[in-house]
Amino acid sequence: MTKRLDADDPCPARDGFAMPAEWSPHIRTWMCWPCRIETWGGPDGLLRAKQAVARVARAISSFEQVVIAARPLDAAEAKLATSGKAEIYEVPIDDSWARDSGPTFVAASDGRRGAVQWEFNAWGNKYHPWADDAQFAGRVARRSDVRIYQAPLVCEGGAIHTDGEGTLITTEQCLLNANRNPHLDRQQVEERLALFTGARRVIWLGEGFSDDETDGHVDNIACFLAPGRVLVGVPSSRSHPDFAPVMEAIRRLSDTRDAEGRRIEIVEVEQPLKQGTDWRGRPLQASYVNFYLPSGGVVMPAFDDRNDEKARELLASCFPGRDILQILANDIVAGGGGIHCITQQEPE
Question: Active site includes 341?
Fold first, then answer.
């Protein structure tokens, strides 16, 4: 059960902290080495996932430092696979999604930094065990020597996205889900998001998305490109199960204003044409929205799809001056996430 929030509990917003936008400068990127066989459907899937994660780590290392958290018995493998381009942090972990189990870093205008440790329950009690992943955010924060804030909210990093100026987007399907925060209503969830990310406006994008693994993480649906500008992934076919929920998300974005009172400009990216399935037989959650912004670059997914180049050109136009690296991500998505899901930025 989520613990209560008392008026005198320490919170980042009360101490002058806020969650920066992802395009702000980073100190480093955190990742985790894949280790849960169940996530990938067996040893072969796990091996392919490791190879794909290594490709992403090597790509990010051309922009900034990469630290990969790995179980001690996997440390040598991770170092070899990344060709020594990533620092290996030996630590107990249960799974490989640094975005979700890792800390949400916050920063203050005077240069102070902190980290939020959300309550973690393995995406609504979907995997066991998760005790080490529940402690992972705190362990990373201590290693980075920043203050840790314990947030009384079950949340994953992929469930939220911010413009760095007080506006946050999320989905009702995830944070209002009975498997996350059954004892909290929308207002109480918003209060916690505000106190622990500095958000002054929360935009809810609804529910009905086919992503059963994360229950509709926003980082597969929409993300900020800049303050007042949001990228939305639009299914390539009206028959896609996410078409109606995405249209509703666009409507909500169009009908609201951000924390600064701006109307939101919506940029649409057509999702992959292929509508494959993962190893479980569920719709493959392949999304061009699930990209990562290391300092000076864009590391984005490719899916061996005819829309790959179109998506690359669109993101290049959205982030002029950044180098674009496109990495085949099918073997990552097979485990239930994407490039954004396996990364977590630590801001300057």
Answer: yes
